[in-house]
Specification:
heterotrimer, A alpha+beta, B alpha+beta, C alpha+beta, A: Aldehyde Oxidoreductase, domain 4, 3 domains, 28% helix, B: alpha+beta, DNA polymerase, domain 1, 2 domains, five-stranded mixed sheet, 5 helices
């Protein structure tokens, strides 16, 4: 085609409803007769519930019912769907309301259902709970030590799982023989995902058919239905329809099955009316999952010439008081297996303790394990460079996996291989964009004037498009299901195309990029493509949107459906053109005889003919309609180099980001504008972890950063504009050549900023500062340095 | 209490609970759900509307305080079926992803441009510091506001 | 959390001690409290309901107050526990009195330790310190006002 749609920065199809306020998010929905639920949450991090008196709350006019955990003993605990690392004997998951014991501040213990949200909140204050308060522990490493409070009977020393990968003996030996060994303790602090829309749920029970319709803020509505029906309620999945309305961001936190969704569903039957629960932001901070929270002891070994020979990592991963849906998979498969980064590291050993503490649940947050791995690797590489007085760009080049080595087996990926890459090219482009040599001169001049400029690198890889079912499923990586996606494409009689997909979009723009793939393949205008998703009624099963998998798995399913449609269209076209199938081609939205493009049948004509059905080849079914299920043969491995330039005020510890350059290679790009947007947002979250964000619990397990007053979400005035570039190395894993772009920014940015700050402070002898690098911490490090 | 408010050009009279927040009045009583609630401590700006032409976080204001005022919400911004230049700017520059902060962000940006017709990038970043976005890193929001300012003759 | 404070009464030490032991006076001085009700079988222990506004979390808190370690007229301890608004507050205060002969004033110093849980901890933490300072100031000032003028030293 003259102008390709695939690869064009077209404006998003979903935007008109979003910029006019017309889109309906969960809390915008009102059903006739709807009641409102409010949840009473534990003020203690660790306590036994001795008794609950709900009588005063129940007596408030307008209250329809007050319930506690004891009222839901017929509802099963929530499932843990990713049982990695021998977790199975130590599983503790939430119940809809905790009946006996709470293990973190914010756990639900009672619920009020009332005519209005105001009444429900008022009545909530009248519930009296008698707790026996138990001692709490919040630090994952301390929780494993003797004498620590014990949270669950089935998890001695609070250890939920112990997992390892790599070659222990080989790594020990290589470290013993290394010419340089550097040890460091790095903390990847706990973050709170904070999508701007909080969570919520509306459930309606239909007694005549014994069916539920559940609206929820979910990144994976099909999986929610599966988990709720099969595991929590023990009913056929045909008895439930789950709908994700417009979802206002997720960043991982809306993947999971939460107790509130099951609670509201159960309440809709008990009350006999539709029930809504809309999370407040202060609830969101205690009751929605957090991310990261690793304490890591790392040891890196190298030769004097900068060749890295070994990496040993021991990580304490804080899982919170109780397990969220896929919590065990994050610090294992998605972390330990990525510790080779972009480098040939011949010896790697990673050991992970998954630990219960009296804190909120920890699960996937944008990047999910991969930012933690990248932080370890990119810090380790910089530490070696610093020790050997090598240039940080040079040491990266020296250790990169060369482009000739793909597919590359890092030996810790349990059989998977990095699919494609040209790491040097991305680094080279980033160096060029930033003007590296000029910067080093400017840095030297600034130091003469007592100003501290620094440059930081992060040459990351990540793993997207999770995942081949045979690799990730039981007994491989412990994921209790497959991870394929599906899509149906229908070309209606009018030539308009409807795509239904099991993927879910909560800001990524799938309606646009999917339409671009359809337009490219079928030659129809983008406006003629409608993409439907996020409702289990009318869409084929899908595992949902997370792990940057919707392009490289979900949209490949769309592409494969389109190939089937095109095949059928070709057959029909040949029949109508009175030609042999092997003599016709499908090109630019038309089927024509090879060499005679003038005599053609358009896709619209073919769709019409297929739908009318009175002139079909013998044996052909009417309608252009096909479904594909796509299970990827491998994950995809995006990469790139991010470079950050900072200036640190040595007098105050204040950090100013002067420039931020990102070169990402996400394979083929469907819509550059959307990919750039994903990168920008990711960078902001990664920078924020380095400089501002951090969830803080006091020693009693009280969350001190429980609102946007105290949790330092970045504001517009704190960030610069980003300079974004790209290289394009197609993925050989899938026919679209795409890799995934949703998480690169978050994965790459954090170590780039930290490395920049430490580069700036090198003349002052500062080697390490914990995140977030607040002015106070930076100032203290300078004083000590 | 009885209040009378002119909302998006139409006068509305209602009896409201004195403790009802303006944002709940707009959303729950009038069904104007374009205005969002993103926090409970007045940090996020998702609930920004115009009160007598000035940007206001409608979660910090009681409905009864709005008696006699003129309010514009995101639903009232497009005139006669054509988008406001700010809405066009957000669409063209990809100034939104999940869209949840967008109504508040657009309302705040429109009010900002009234006072700063020729803003620099820095002006825009400071002008929007009361509105949080978690998706865009603000990069394309800044570009959107800049584009709108140029379109509006700034 | 630890807090300390100083308050100066314009009265002699015995007068100050008496007012500090007067539960009616205390009830009147405690912010938001109407009455202190003695708890049966527990000496020097009272319960009370208080209407308080602490940052975003205002409402009714119910609590208990116990006096102990009394060494008239120099020293005693107040132990307070309260709950409400999905929060729990526990605190203990050691109160010392000293008479400054020169200035004819009684100087009260207090040292408190407190812990808060729940919503108040996660939302209100940052304002607890100033809130305690403000409320303790109000409390002692209100007690001071109840000292009859004839007993004042200036």
């Amino acid at each position: 085609m003259a102008s390709r749609v695939f690869g064009a920065s077209i404006k998003r199809k979903e935007d008109p409803r979003l910029i006019t306020g017309e889109a309906k998010y969960l809390d915008d929905l009102q059903l006739p007769g709807m009641a409102h639920a409010a949840i009473l949450r534990s003020p203690h991090a660790h306590a036994r519930i001795k008794s609950i008196d709900t009588s005063a709350a129940a007596a408030v006019p307008g209250v329809l019912g007050v319930f506690t955990g004891k009222d839901f003993m017929d509802v099963n605990p929530l499932p843990c769907a990713w049982q990695a690392g021998g977790v199975e004997n130590h599983v503790n998951t939430p119940r809809v309301l905790e009946p006996e014991k709470v293990t973190f501040t914010g756990a639900g213990v009672a619920v009020v259902v009332a005519e209005s949200r105001y009444i429900a909140e008022d009545a909530l204050q009248l519930i009296k709970v008698n707790y026996e308060v138990l001692p709490a522990v919040v630090d994952a490493q301390k929780a494993t030590q003797s004498g620590a409070p014990q949270i669950h009977d089935n998890a001695p020393n609070n250890v939920c799982m112990e997992w390892s990968c790599g070659d222990k003996a080989g790594t020990d030996k290589a470290l013993g023989e290394a010419e340089v060994v550097i040890k460091e303790r790095v903390v990847n602090q706990r973050l709170i995902p904070t999508p701007m829309e909080t969570r919520g749920c509306i459930a309606q029970y239909l007694p005549a058919t014994d069916e539920y319709t559940v609206w929820m803020t979910s990144q994976a509505p099909h999986v929610m239905r599966l988990l709720m029906t099969a595991f929590v309620f023990g009913i056929p999945e045909t008895k439930m329809r789950v709908i994700s309305p417009q979802v206002g961001g997720g960043f991982g936190a809306k993947i999971f099955l939460y107790p509130e969704y099951c609670l509201v569903t159960a309440l809709s039957k008990k009350i006999g009316r539709p029930v809504k629960w809309a999370e407040t932001r202060s609830e969101n901070y205690v009751a929605t999952t957090h991310g990261r929270d690793h304490i890591t002891e790392l040891e890196v070994g190298a030769k004097r010439d900068g060749t890295i020979t070994a990496l040993r990592v021991n990580t304490y991963a804080n899982l919170g008081g109780i397990l969220s849906t896929i919590a065990p998979g994050i610090p294992t498969t998605l972390y330990g297996r990525l510790l080779s980064g972009a480098y040939k590291i011949p010896n790697i050993y990673c050991h992970v303790w998954g630990v219960y503490t009296n804190t909120g649940m920890v699960d996937a947050y944008r990047g999910a394990g991969r930012p933690e791995a990248t932080f370890v690797v990119e810090r380790a590489v910089d530490m070696v460079a610093n020790q050997l007085s090598m240039d940080p760009a040079e040491i990266r080049r020296k250790n990169f996996i060369p482009s000739s080595a793909f597919p590359y087996d890092p030996k810790i990926l349990n059989g998977l291989k990095y699919d494609s890459g040209d790491y040097d090219k991305a680094l080279g482009k980033a160096l060029e964009m930033v003007g590296y040599q000029d910067f080093r001169k400017a840095q030297a001049d600034a130091r003469q004037q007592g100003r501290y400029l620094g440059i930081g690198f992060s040459s990351y890889i990540e793993m997207c498009g999770v995942a081949p079912s045979a690799w990730i499923g039981l007994p491989g990586e412990g994921w209790g299901a497959g991870l394929w996606e599906s899509a149906n494409v229908r070309v209606h009689l009018t030539g308009k195309v409807v795509v239904t997909s099991g993927s879910q979009s909560h800001g990524q723009g799938h309606e646009t990029t999917t339409a671009q793939i359809v337009a490219e393949e079928l030659g129809v205008p983008v406006e003629d493509v409608i993409v439907q998703h996020s409702d289990t009624l009318g869409t084929p099963f899908g595992y949902g949107t997370y792990g940057s998998r919707s392009a490289s798995v979900g949209q490949v399913a769309v592409f494969n459906s389109l190939q089937k449609i095109k095949e059928k269209a070709k057959k029909l076209g040949a029949h109508l053109l009175e030609a042999a199938v092997e003599d016709v081609v499908f090109e630019n939205g038309k089927v024509h005889v090879k060499g005679s493009p003038d005599k053609a049948k358009t896709i619209q004509e073919l769709a019409g003919a297929a739908a009318l059905g009175y002139s079909l080849p013998a044996g052909m079914e009417p309608f252009l309609d096909d479904t594909a299920y796509y299970d990827p043969p491998n994950c995809t491995f995006p990469f790139g180099t991010h470079i950050c330039i900072v200036e640190v005020d040595a007098g105050t510890g204040q950090i100013d980001i002067k420039r931020y350059v990102a070169v990402d290679d996400v394979g083929k790009v469907i819509n550059p504008m959307i990919v750039d947007g994903q990168v920008h947002g990711g960078i902001a979250q990664g920078v924020a972890q380095a400089l501002w964000e951090g969830a803080v619990y006091d020693e009693n397990g009280q969350l001190l950063t429980g609102s946007l007053m105290d949790y330092a979400l970045p504001r517009a005035d704190l960030l610069p504009s980003f300079e974004v570039g790209r290289t394009e190395t197609p993925s050989p894993t899938n026919p679209l050549g795409v890799k995934g772009a949703g998480e690169t920014g978050t994965i790459a940015a954090t170590p780039a900023v930290v490395n920049a700050v430490l580069d700036a402070l090198k003349p002052l002898g500062v080697l390490h500062i914990d995140m977030p690098m607040t002015p106070a911490r930076v100032w203290q490090a300078i004083q000590k340095g | 209490m009885k209040i009378s408010v002119k909302i998006n050009g139409k006068t509305v009279e209602r009896d409201v609970d004195p403790r009802m927040l303006l944002v709940h009045f707009l959303r729950d009583e009038l069904g104007l759900t374009g205005t969002k609630v993103g926090c409970d401590t007045s940090q996020c700006g998702s609930c920004t509307v115009h009160l007598n032409g000035e940007a206001l976080k409608s979660c910090t204001f009681f409905a009864v305080q709005a008696d006699g005022a003129e309010i514009t919400t995101i639903e009232g911004l497009a005139a006669n079926g054509s988008l406001h230049p700010m809405q066009e700017g957000f669409w063209e520059k990809h100034g939104l992803q999940c869209g949840y902060c967008t109504p508040g962000m657009i309302m705040a940006s429109v009010a900002f441009l009234k006072k700063h017709a020729h803003p620099t990038e820095e002006d825009i970043r400071h002008g929007l510091e009361g509105n949080l976005c978690r998706c865009t890193g603000y990069h394309n929001i800044v570009a959107a506001v800049k584009a709108a300012s140029e379109k509006m003759g700034g | 959390m630890k807090f300390t404070g100083v308050f100066t009464f314009n009265a002699d030490q015995q007068t100050v001690w008496e007012i500090l032991m007067d539960t009616k006076a205390i009830a009147q001085a405690l912010p938001g409290v109407e009455e202190l009700i003695p708890v049966a079988d527990e000496p020097d222990t009272w319960r009370a309901d208080a209407k308080l506004g602490i940052a975003a979390i205002s409402g009714t808190y119910s609590g208990r107050i116990r006096m102990s370690e009394q060494q008239p007229p120099d020293k005693y301890r107040l132990t307070v526990s309260g709950e409400g608004q999905q929060s729990i507050i526990n605190g203990t205060t050691l109160i010392h009195l000293r008479y400054d002969e020169e200035q004819k004033k009684t100087i009260l110093t207090w040292e408190a330790e407190a812990s808060v849980s729940g919503k108040l901890a996660s939302i209100g933490q940052r304002v607890i310190s100033p809130a305690v300072k403000m409320m303790s100031g109000q409390f002692f000032k209100a007690l001071d006002k109840q000292i009859p003028s004839e007993k004042r030293t200036s």
